[in-house]
């Protein structure tokens, strides 16, 4: 499988034609170009046939070997980078009621006209860091106005720099979203922020993009997200001035204050109609003054006044004038900025059901919320939740992002959370339902991924929405939709009474991280789950979380850290019931196998097998027979391996366990290969590959391909071995396994000694 290094949907055929023509002009054969450039004949051939594109370093080596002039080099680079699809369109909708900001727009349009030549990063900043001043509205309006000058698309992210949680969006998470929008497969996104930033700059090079970084906390949060291309326009909004970007990155600062009286009146008229403002000019003027000329406050008041066309402006003004408390997040010496009063007026205009729904919605810890999660929080049906959300959107208390999810401004969220305390709502019940929604639906989504965590799951709590999921693709879409909610919930819902919910949630989400190769996220999540289990002192839960954590650490090559988890597991064995003890013995054996401690691995696998047999569990017994057979093979006891696996295969087939049947076939192939029966070994490996393919298990396909390549090499089929190792490298690279490079090295150096990899 070929994974493009420089993007998705690129014009491989055009690059191939350019490469072939340049090679022929230079009177070079494939072999001579390979010798001159250091790039393999096969790789050059694949490029010329339109099968792949070069890495950046490889491209430079080819251009140097071909002695291209500057014009030819430019054409090569453009062909390698050109996209034919996957143009991101992430900008939120422009406001139809956008008014004013003439001076600011004039300034930023001057910057736009020079951005290609200067590569400037433009920062829109609110003086004094005031929230709700319209930074986002101006940034989005500007971006929409100049979008046609940046044909490669627009990227947008809310960095959540000033939310009450105090947890701004990690730049690595923002980069993951950008790379996904630019066509990088999720499984190919590197785990580290620096690597993600480097890949983002590479993908943005030669593109003309608009990048909107909204609500930034500080310069350090922004810097990894800045594209290096002079053809990109980057717009950053923040309550801070971000002067460090001006000093170090040459950014231009545009200070944004509240509206002038005229701008605020024009915006109010755009929302409620010119006639009503002309009919009561003094009331309209006092109304925007009571809003402190703050765009967010004017928008909320305007929406409510517009919804009640029969109500004069005078009573609205009197009501606002009589509200003198302030939203703490906007406390200042300027008494005109009475945003809490504005929020309270808007809140009281809601229908009772929507008012209650709004309070519960404010408890959601993530940056955005799905209708199903909101329904679960508020203990209402999904249809009712959508009706409430439409009412809140009309009231400008909620907006929608580019993904269609619902977003509360951080100040609105803070106000809603205050109301929860004032109204004595059941906060614990709402948060419990949210966690149960994320757990219950993850369990059923796991079944569609072919890796259910447990055989059964209890019914959800009353009021928890079950999402209808019927396909693997729908399951993955749901996981992606809710992953930010899970991350936020695990970090911020710290009530001790929620420990069990959090612990169970980490168990149900581990499959998604494993399937998508998200080892970093899995490790972070399982540490939270393990901490909860330790605090609850539940041995079975401690064992499950420690075992998952050990596996993820071993997958990323952190074997010493994995060993510490194994020591914890060994100390738990006497506290576990037989079923959990068997699972723990199996996990210990797996990690010991990864550590090349094969005798210990066999010891623990046999102990697990004894327990499963004693329990009369045929399915798990057959599964563990394969594990024992594998470790026997690694210790050179091949006949025992084959006999055990031949006994296990019919049982596995009877129980429909495709993955372990595939593993058993691989184990038998390995043993037969060591006994010199190469034809039988190849047949076993091919059957294993087929079964893993049916199970959508690319990781273990890579393991089998590694074994198959060694047989092909032994039989003298060097081309076949090279192809198998390259396929294995691609599959492992997709999940960031450190063993991918070894597969690639094997493919390029068939004379090197090969050490078979392990599996269970």
From TrEMBL:
PANTHER family: HTH-TYPE TRANSCRIPTIONAL REGULATOR RV0890C-RELATED (PTHR47691:SF3), REGULATOR-RELATED (PTHR47691)
Domain called HTH cro/C1-type: residue spans: 19-73
SMART domains named among the record's database cross-references: HTH_XRE, TPR
Domain of life: Bacteria
Keywords noted in UniProt: ATP-binding, Nucleotide-binding
Protein name: ATP-binding protein
Gene3D superfamilies referenced in this protein's UniProt entry, alphabetically: lambda repressor-like DNA-binding domains, P-loop containing nucleotide triphosphate hydrolases, Tetratricopeptide repeat domain
Keyword Ubl conjugation listed: no
Lineage: Bacteria, Bacillati, Actinomycetota, Actinomycetes, Kitasatosporales
Molecular function as annotated in GO: ATP binding
Species the sequence originates in: Streptomyces olivaceoviridis (Streptomyces corchorusii)
CDD domains tied to this protein: HTH_XRE
PROSITE patterns named in the record: HTH_CROC1
């Amino acid at each position: 499988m070929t994974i493009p290094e420089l993007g998705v949907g690129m014009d491989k055929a055009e690059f191939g034609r350019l490469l072939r023509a340049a090679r022929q002009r230079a009177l070079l054969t494939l072999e001579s170009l390979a010798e001159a450039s250091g790039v393999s004949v096969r790789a050059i051939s694949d490029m010329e046939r339109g099968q792949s594109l070069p890495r950046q370093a490889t491209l430079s080596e080819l251009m140097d070997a071909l002695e291209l002039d500057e014009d030819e080099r430019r054409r090569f680079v453009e062909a390698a980078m050109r996209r034919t699809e996957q143009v991101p369109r992430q900008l939120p909708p422009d406001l139809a009621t956008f008014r004013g900001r003439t001076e600011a727009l004039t300034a930023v349009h001057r910057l736009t006209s020079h951005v290609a030549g200067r590569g400037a990063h433009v920062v829109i900043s609110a003086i004094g860091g005031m929230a709700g001043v319209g930074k986002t509205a101006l940034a989005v309006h500007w971006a929409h106005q100049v979008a046609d000058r940046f044909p490669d698309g627009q990227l947008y992210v809310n960095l959540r720099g000033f939310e009450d949680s105090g947890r701004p969006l990690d730049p690595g998470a923002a980069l993951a979203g950008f790379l996904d929008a630019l066509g990088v497969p999720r499984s190919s996104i590197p785990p580290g922020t620096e690597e993600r930033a480097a890949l983002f700059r590479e993908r943005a090079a030669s593109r003309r993009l608009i990048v909107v970084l909204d609500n930034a906390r500080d310069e350090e949060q922004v810097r990894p997200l800045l594209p290096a291309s002079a053809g990109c326009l980057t717009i950053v909004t923040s309550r801070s001035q971000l002067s460090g970007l001006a000093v170090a990155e040459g950014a231009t600062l545009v200070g944004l204050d509240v509206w002038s009286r005229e701008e605020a009146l024009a915006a109010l008229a755009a929302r409620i109609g010119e006639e009503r403002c002309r009919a009561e000019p003094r009331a309209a003027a006092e109304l925007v003054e009571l809003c402190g000329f703050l765009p967010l406050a004017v928008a909320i008041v305007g929406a409510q006044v517009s919804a009640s066309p029969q109500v004069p402006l005078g009573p609205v003004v009197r009501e606002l004038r009589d509200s003198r408390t302030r939203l703490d997040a906007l406390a200042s010496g300027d008494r005109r900025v009475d945003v809490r009063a504005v929020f309270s007026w808007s809140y009281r205009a809601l229908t009772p059901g929507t008012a209650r729904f709004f309070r519960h919605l404010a408890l959601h810890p993530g940056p955005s919320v799905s209708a199903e999660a909101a329904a679960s929080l508020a203990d209402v049906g999904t249809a009712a939740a959508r009706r409430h959300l439409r009412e809140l959107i009309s009231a400008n208390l909620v907006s929608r992002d580019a993904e269609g999810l619902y977003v509360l401004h951080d100040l609105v969220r803070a106000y809603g959370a205050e109301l929860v305390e004032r109204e004595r709502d059941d906060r614990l019940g709402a948060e419990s339902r949210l966690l149960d929604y994320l757990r219950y639906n993850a369990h059923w989504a796991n079944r569609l991924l072919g890796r259910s965590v447990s055989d059964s799951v209890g019914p959800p709590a009353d009021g928890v929405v079950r999402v209808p999921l019927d396909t693997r693709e729908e399951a993955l879409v749901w996981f992606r939709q809710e992953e930010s909610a899970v991350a936020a919930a695990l970090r911020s819902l710290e009530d001790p009474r929620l420990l069990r919910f959090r612990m169970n949630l980490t168990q149900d989400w581990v499959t998604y991280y494993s399937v998508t190769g998200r080892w970093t996220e899995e490790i972070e999540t399982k540490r939270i789950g393990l901490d909860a289990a330790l605090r609850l002192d539940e041995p079975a839960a401690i064992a499950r979380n420690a075992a998952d954590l050990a596996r993820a650490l071993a997958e990323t090559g952190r074997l010493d850290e994995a060993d510490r988890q194994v020591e914890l597991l060994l100390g738990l064995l006497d506290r576990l019931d037989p079923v959990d003890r068997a699972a723990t013995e199996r996990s210990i054996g797996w990690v010991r196998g990864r550590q090349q401690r094969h005798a210990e691995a066999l010891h623990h696998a046999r102990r697990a097998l004894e327990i499963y047999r004693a329990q009369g569990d045929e399915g798990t017994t057959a599964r563990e027979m394969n594990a024992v057979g594998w470790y026997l093979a690694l210790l050179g006891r091949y006949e025992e391996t084959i006999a055990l696996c031949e006994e296990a295969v019919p049982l596995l087939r009877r129980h429909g366990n495709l993955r372990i049947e595939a593993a058993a076939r691989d184990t038998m192939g390995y043993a037969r290969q060591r006994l010199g029966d190469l034809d039988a070994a190849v047949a076993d490996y091919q059957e294993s590959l087929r079964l893993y393919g049916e199970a959508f298990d690319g990781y273990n396909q890579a393991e089998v391909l590694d074994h198959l390549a060694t047989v092909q090499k032994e039989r003298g089929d060097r081309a076949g071995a090279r192809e198998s190792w390259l396929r294995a490298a691609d599959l492992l690279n997709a999940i960031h396994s450190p063993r991918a490079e070894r597969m690639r090295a094997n493919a390029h150096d068939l004379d090197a000694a090969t050490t078979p990899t392990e599996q269970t």
